[in-house]
Amino acid sequence: MGRVLRGGVVGLTMLVAGTQMLGPQVHLFGQGMIGAGIATLYLSVFAAHSMFDPSLIDDKTTLALMIAVTCIRRLYRRSLQFVWWRAGNPRRF
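Below the sequence we write its predicted structure tokens.
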């Protein structure tokens, strides 16, 4: 349980740090931090549900948390579009 909680705290910390870094000089690094934070939150929810024999959280709670993380991702959609476009088109740069 401690590992899953640490993963959630790290994910939220990365989201906050990435939001603070969305200035003009380190904008791309801030976007990367936000994306990594969202991925960490997804992984933490998945691990809490699937990686342990007696599941730490039930199905309904897992669904609610996954929807919440997806809503957070939607909030940062505009700032992450360039990162997702760049990852899909590596030959353009």
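The CA atoms of residues 10 and 37 lie 7 Å apart.
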